Amino acid sequence: MRALIIEDDADLREQLRTQLRDEGYAVDATGDGEEGLFFAGEYPADVAIIDLGLPGRTGMEIIREARAAGRSFPILILTARGRWQDKVEGLEAGADDYVVKPFHPEELLARLQALLRRSRGWARSLLECGDIALDTARQEVRVAGEPITLTAYEYRVLEHLMLHAGEVVSKTDLTEHIYEEDADRDSNVLEVFVRRLRKKLDPDGTRAPIETLRGRGYRLRAEPAGE
Questions:
Q1: Contact 115, 74 (CB under 8 A)
Q2: What is the DSSP secondary structure assignment for residue 169, as one 8-state letter?
Q3: Beta strand 47-50 with 26-30: parallel, antiparallel or unpaired?
């Protein structure tokens, strides 16, 4: 998953960046409103955390303009403004949730995970496709009830495919959602991640959970092959 943080408090911004990276997110971050508006319009974020009081452009302006441009990723407002009028204004501008500073990091993470699940039509933290189960809260993966160990990037690939189960996900889209903007991207490396995932999810080669559609990308089967 790829998160966008727009927060002008440098210490808090770095705290959030570290926290989300530790949870497996690729993170883009800025403390400037103008740059944040650019990021929101150009970067393929899965979720955004936006402060309201920003230099250049306010958080409200960023939210309104992002929504007007058709950007539909979940947005969580993070601000010191606790008045109910500010909350209403933020939600009416297009935000999906609201957290007031100071806050507990665990609450913020739980809210982000809930926003991501709801945006993809999942009601629980446990994603299940056939006999593959991925617990987003614990970041644990089981196949037919047995735990498997994934690297950070393997987990990101699987999580994105599961959130889009049954859909074709292009290599470009998958790459953009697992890497940060300044990362060294290589489609050949992505193919290695997918190949390793296949071996871990289907060591016997009997279920083929991840399909390759030539020239189009990958698709995680919503049900095991043959059903």
A1: yes
A2: B
A3: unpaired
109 and 150 assigned to the same domain: no
Write the CATH number for 188.
1.10.10.10
* Cα 33 from Cα 61, distance rounded (Å): 9
Burial class (CB in 10 A: 0-12, 13-18, 19+), 209: buried
What pLDDT digit, counting tens, does each position of 116-171 carry? 877 776 667 788 888 999 988 788 999 999 999 998 889 989 999 998 889 999 98
Number of structural domains (the chain) is 2
Q: Where are the beta strands (DSSP E) in the chain?
A: 2-6, 26-30, 47-50, 75-79, 97-100, 126-129, 132-135, 140-143, 146-148, 210-213, 217-220
Question: Considering the domain boundaries, does residue 225 fall inside one?
Answer: no
Tell which phi-psi region holds residue 212, choosing left (phi > 0), alpha (psi between -120 and 50) or beta: beta
Contact residues for 57 (Cβ-Cβ < 8 A; gap 6+): 33, 34, 36, 37
- Distance (Å, rounded) from C-alpha 188 to C-alpha 135? 28
Within this chain, do residues 91 and 135 fall inside the same structural domain, yes or no? no
Domain identity same for 15 and 95:
yes
Q: For tokens 């997110």, what's the residue? A: 25
Dihedral sign computed on CA atoms, order 199, 125, 110, 2: positive
Query: Which residue range forms the structural domain that includes residue 132?
Result: 126-220
Q: Give the containing element (helix H, strand E) for 154.
A: helix 152-163
User: How far apart are the C-alpha atoms of 211 and 153, rounded to whole Å?
Assistant: 19
